[in-house]
Amino acid sequence: MKACQYVEIGRPPRVVDVEKPTPGPGEVLLRITASGACHSDEFIMSLPEEQYTFGLPLTLGHEGAGIVEELGEGASGVEVGESVAVYGPWGCGLCHACAQGKENYCRFAEERAIQPPGLGAPGSMAEFMIVDSPRHLVRLGDLDPVASVALTDAGLTPYHAIKPTLPKLLPGSVAVVIGVGGLGHVAVQILKALSAATVVALDAKEAARQLALDVGADHAFASDSAAVDEIRRLSGGLGATVVFDFVAADATTALAATMVHAESDLVIVGVGPGSVPVGFFSLPHEVRVWSPYWGSRPELEEVLELARVGAIHVETETFGLDEAPVVYERMHAGTLRGRGIVVP
Ligand code: NAD
Ligand code: ZN
């Protein structure tokens, strides 16, 4: 079968021929219907050899959807032919966090070398993929796999970041989304669907600001200090009650820190190098700074429900499997609108 693999440190990924996998005991083989390209893929492919821990060659793709093709011995709970999406942050399934569906925070994943597909285990940017357990599948039902596949990360990650902040997002408050790409444009929609806040999007790119407005942002500005003045004006002088930084460059986390007020949340979702010093004199009092990772299994069900009722959708550009490396070129060039989806 064909697969898009990262083969050599610092070189672009390539489409190669590899053996079609067979499901072992308890595993599920999917025939891939769609696979999303995330900025995190580009991030790991930018790492120098000494920091790269995902194995080579690596079949990319941690946002995956497919049709159940074959069940390994003893695997049950899904039927051959069902349309499913993959819950990516795999855990052990048994520890306290996993028992709550929070496999993204499995305490044993690291020591047992359990890695997500596309981020260690072979991913979805291929004709077929192995899912280690039916527990890591969600039924798509009537949802279109190409339109929904990115909800497994570009939807789930912002949802997980936004949900705990909802009690703070009262009418009159301002929520700020920095970076309106794959994750950010879904974040804008989740905020509009679930909160009364005024949603302000910041991005360096004009096209991304337009995308934010197209999917429902109330305002969109370039990410600079003039935006902070606008945010203060829109909030009656108060500032941003919650800031979601989907970039986390030094410049964006620093900007975020200048717009918060007492008891705000500053949520660092991007995997950039930016950070925010926390101390008695460094931020307004009781600002909560946190950096979430992906989301839980029940939250993925909730995100898919939001899509089913039409409250959120993913703007997609589709590519064939042979064109998969082009998605990453386009991502690097910043010319994708929403999410690039590979359709084998
Ligand atoms: P993307 O490439 O689709 O979008 C990034 C957006 O940020 C673009 O619109 C770009 O114009 C904008 N941007 C870049 N630099 C900027 C700057 N300095 N100021 C303002 N805007 C800027 O990326 P994505 O796939 O949405 O991922 C966003 C980030 O989230 C990445 O860092 C990714 O690695 C990370 N991520 C984190 C998690 C997690 O669990 N925490 C999960 C998935 C992705
Ligand atoms: Zn991702």
How would you describe what is shown here?
This protein is an alpha/beta fold. The protein folds into two domains: 2-153 and 295-343, Quinone Oxidoreductase, Chain A, domain 1 (Alpha-Beta Complex), CATH 3.90.180.10; 156-290, Rossmann fold (3-Layer(aba) Sandwich), CATH 3.40.50. The protein has helices at 39-45, 96-99, 145-148, 156-162, 182-194, 206-214, 225-234, 250-259, 297-308, 324-333; strands at residues 2-6, 14-17, 28-37, 58-59, 63-71, 83-86, 128-131, 137-139, 174-178, 198-202, 219-221, 240-245, 260-268, 288-290, 316-320, 339-343. Strand 1 and strand 2 form a beta hairpin. The longest helix is centred in the middle third of the chain and has 13 residues, at 182-194. The mean pLDDT is 98. Zinc ion (ZN) binds next to loops.
Helix-strand pattern:
EEEHEEEHEEHHEHEHEHEHEEHEHE
Q: Please tell me the total number of domains.
A: 2
Determine the CATH superfamily of the largest domain: Medium-chain alcohol dehydrogenases, catalytic domain
How much of the sequence lies in strands comes to 15-25%
Write down the overall mean pLDDT. Answer: 98
Question: How does the major sheet shape up?
Answer: 7 strands, mixed
Structural class: alpha/beta
Any idea what the CATH architecture of the largest domain is?
Alpha-Beta Complex
Question: How many beta-strand elements?
Answer: 16
- Number of contiguous helices: 10
User: Which percent bin holds the helix content?
Assistant: 25-40%
Gross geometry? globular
The first-level CATH class name of the largest domain:
Alpha Beta
Uncertain ranges? none
What distance separates the N and C termini? 10 Å
Look up the CATH topology of the largest domain. Quinone Oxidoreductase, Chain A, domain 1
Give the radius of gyration: 20 Å
Task: Identify the bound ligands.
Answer: nicotinamide-adenine-dinucleotide, zinc ion
